[in-house]
Amino acid sequence: MNKIKVMVVDDSIMFRTFLISNLSKDPRFEVVGFAVNAMDAMNKLPLYKPDVMTLDIEMPGMTGLEFLKELLPKHPIPVVLVSSLNVRVFDALAAGAIDFVRKPDDENHIRKDEFIATLINKVVIASHSRVRLPTAEGFIIADGAVTRKTTTSAAGAFARRPVTPGAASAGSMANAAHAGKQTGALSTAGVHISDDMVLAIGASTGGTEAILAVMQQFPAQMPAIVITQHMPAGFTAMYAERLNRLCKMEVREAKHGDRVCPGLALLAPGGIQMRLVRMGTGYSVSCVGSEKVSGHCPSVDVLFDSVASVARDKAIGVILTGMGADGAAGLLRMRKNGAYTVGQDKETCVVYGMPMEAYKIGAVCTQAPLQAIPSAVISRLRTGK
Q1: Whose CB among 128, 209, 300, 317 lies 3.0–4.6 Å from 334's, allowing a Cys bridge?
Q2: Residue 165: count of CB within 10 angstroms of its CB
């Protein structure tokens, strides 16, 4: 088995040495080199030819974010950000980075062994991922460095690839968007949106941008939305603020007891399990417990299981890009209880793991490209089928 070639980019000699030493201990990795800043990395990249790069965001001279924008169009290499608590993480993910790990420091109480374990896991995942490259027309998806094969135009994939048999047709999706065709926006005009309707979304690696791509297409008038994205504590509040700024719906980080209502999306807080619970004729969220379920906290399975039990056939479930199987079993329970379920297709996933596992066990009613998922959801709201 070929080792995963890793390049470390960090301006701190102490932290760089710490990363190199610990990554080198794992037999799956070969640390092929390091760079002390962005320009140094750009010069060394052709020599080292890494499969995965770890990258600090805050560096003197060219920042990690500027470096990503310059690097990825020329060299579509999976990049794992290693950063402090910083809103620029999300700008870097939007620029094409695969994932991020929060640096341990004196204030966040992250143990160094836990940090290294998380970093190792994310580097392995990144080695099997496909890089998302923003373009003026949208984005393209390129295979990751270890299994690099082709580069596919996402816009072309959306045009060529229909949803799977038995799913909503391209025609029904087009009808869903009919009311908003003058502006190019989707609309729920004329759709009765009740307090007991809920849309549940789950994602992991690549999910921050996938969720944004879905949410940006939704109009302000939508059923209540509950979201679980694998993310550590501290970052979910910033991510919710980003979604709120860029989307038509109101988006907030959930707090225990928050009422779930139309026009509002609630994001599970990092490090806490979020569940949908009945409150009168509507719902609220329970945000308690830090135990890991399906290997994660927050867990998509926890959210989907609660939606399956409480909302039943009044729910829609969407599972997006991510490694592993979290959410697959919960989505199956949702479908068995009458919910309509959608899975992101392979061609538009950064990592086709969670949607694949859900599809394999029969949890997915409709499998669709990322950009077609909002139309599929609104078609279901409009027609009920």
Answers
A1: 317
A2: 7
Rounded-to-integer distance, Cα 82 and Cα 7, Å? 12
**d(C-alpha 345, C-alpha 348), whole Å:** 6
Asked if 204 is an active-site residue, the reply is yes
Bridge partners, 259 (sequence order)? 284
Whether the CB-CB separation of 133 and 96 falls below 8 Å is answered with yes
Which has more confidence, 328 or 113?
Answer: 328
11-57 pLDDT tens trace = 999 999 999 999 999 999 999 999 999 999 999 999 999 999 999 98
- DSSP notation for 167-208: S--HHHHHHHTGGGTTTT----TT----TT-EEEEEE-TTHH
Q: Which of 321, 318, 326 is nearest to 301 (CA)?
A: 326
Q: Which of 83, 127, 187, 204 is catalytic?
A: 204
Whole-number Å distance between alpha carbons of 190 and 188? 6
The one catalytic residue in 230, 296, 299, 301 is 230
230 is catalytic: yes
Catalytic residue at 345?
no
Options 51, 56, 305, 326, the catalytic residue: 326
Angle made by CA atoms 229, 89, 253, in degrees to the nearest 5? 40
Strand order in the sheet with 99-102: 29-35, 4-9, 52-55, 79-83, 99-102
